[in-house]
Amino acid sequence: MASVNSREWRAVCEKFLRSQELSEKESRKDPENDPFRSKYEARELLKEIYCFLKNVDADESEEEEEEGEEEDGQCEQSESEGGEAAGGRTHPGDSRAGLRAAKLGVVEYYLGVNHIETEELSAGEEHLMSCVKLLEKCAVTRENVSLCIQARNQLGILWAGRDETEKAQGFLETAKSIYVRYMKEDGQPPLDLVDFFVVEQEAPSQQERMRRFEMVYTHTLYYLAQVYKNLEQYEKAGQYCHSTLQRQLKFSQFVPLEWAINAAALSQYYITKTRYMEARHCLAAANVIAGLAGEVPSEAAAKESEVEYEKREQLRQKRAEIARCWIKYCRNLLEDAKKLLEDNIGELDLDRQEEMLRARRDEEEEKERGRKSAVLFDSSDTFDSICRQEEKVSSVLPLIFEEASAIFLVGQGYVAQAKEYFEMDGHVTDHIEILQDHSALFKVLAFFEERLERRCKMHKRRVDILEPICKDLNPQYYLLICRQLQFELAETFNEMMDLKLGVADKQDQPDAHTIKKLNHLCTSSIKYYQMFLDSIRSPEGKFPEKLEDDLLRPALAAKFRVARLQSKIITTNLNAQLENLNHSLDSYNFVVQYCEENPEAKKAVETELELSEEMVSLLPMKINRIKSKLASSN
User: Fold this and answer.
1) Inter-residue contact 27 to 38 (CB < 8 Å)
2) Quick check: 537 pLDDT over 60?
3) Where is region (Disordered) located (predicted)?
4) What is the DSSP string of 437-469?
5) What are the chain's domains?
6) How far is it, in rounded angstroms, from Cα 53 to Cα 65?
7) How far is CA 444 from CA 409, 416, 436, in A?
């Protein structure tokens, strides 16, 4: 083979570096009508290098083959002891045959990547598999380890793109095992792929080699996170995602906004597992790292420069997305606490509350400290800032109103921040979801409030948030959202009426103002339940004989509540009473008859059905008494 310092070898190295430049830099400037021009040029250079390597000096080739046979024997012995990833260990310079194989492997690798990038997947797979086979007996060596991992990473991506997730998993898990074994048995900076095609004085430093190698393994973990997510193994996916983020921070291998969004997304997984300490840590880190992307340019600057405009919009969007993740954190933390504290009718169980307060003292703090040590993003540059962010909100389930209120206020602050970007004009569904989360925050905060009047005011805030949107939204384009809003508004007015009734029960005789208020809440709830039910009707106004699964429970529950509300309207007019009770009986009858005709529906509304059957037998007697009074008065 040509001497490392010979003019011929230098020409080969220059071709290699030129192919890299074409592929990684100049390809970005390729015209739309010839998008792969630079990639094709790079491919031709790689082919020339490959031919050069295959046509080495015959005498040196024979010498290398003799040395290679001895080394292969050692590798095969090691292979038989430890499997594919176990290959024997050599050191740079120990085997010229091994180095030549590695160089061929590098070219095969880049040819594979080149074909994949030009959408020639089968050819790309062939070159990558050739690379793997060239080095499979000596995968865990300083010459080969980085190349072997990168080839399997690419094959993992390739098979994942073909929806062959288990094949992708196999390549990536092997890549991981190669890294783990190499770090255990050697751990020194391995050769980087460019090392094979640069003169010694231009080679990367040991520190740079190690940085690049660690980056390769970080990519392996990132791809494994995606694979396990697609396999719906969310626990493993979460672990790999956390490890990826951890390593990106540790080795400074991240784009701030991208890292922050990924950390915020991971927090949502932890929320589903009620692991709020971990979720808070991810969100706090997301805030800090997003801050590294700089300040949001002013509106004036954005108007003057397209670059500043794009930067402003990107920063505003990503920070608003992180804010939305914080809202979900606060909402779910409050709702999970409510589930633990409520009794069988959804009210605060004071005995359970006191019991949990006693159990939490000291115990919970120790438990959190133990868990926290395992999940910290241990970047010394950002650690203190992350801790300061965490201190702004608890990760412990709130048990009393003051604790719930503190979490609510944090969530409400992020609602305001998210709405600044996700405005109604241009972001309809996002804006409405934020409003629904805001309403949910008020709803769960009201659970912790003991004073009925204050609880009623919190629900009134929910009406103020949702009612204007519900009135403005066109159901022709946003039918599902309209139904959600109508049902929630009906529920909110219903809740307010029950609270007002509770307050009125403490009075000797409700005054005219209280009665008017109760009736207003009652009719408002009926109005929105009816709007929801009418949205289910056909264009001809006919109610479906059989309800769809996703509408079954809410539709029958709405009918039941309308029946209850109609009987709650307070009036001294006997004719009005009679009319209201007849409407109420019709609604109760609807629930009973629907369940008789569709027995599978009974399970969805067991409680409502039982009460409806009871009212169907009782209401006629009440109706007849009123009829008798009317007859006698006439």
Assistant:
1) yes
2) yes
3) 58-96
4) HHHHHHHHHHHH---HHHHHHHHHHHHHHHHHH
5) 7-59+95-253 (1.25.40.10)
6) 14
7) 12, 18, 12
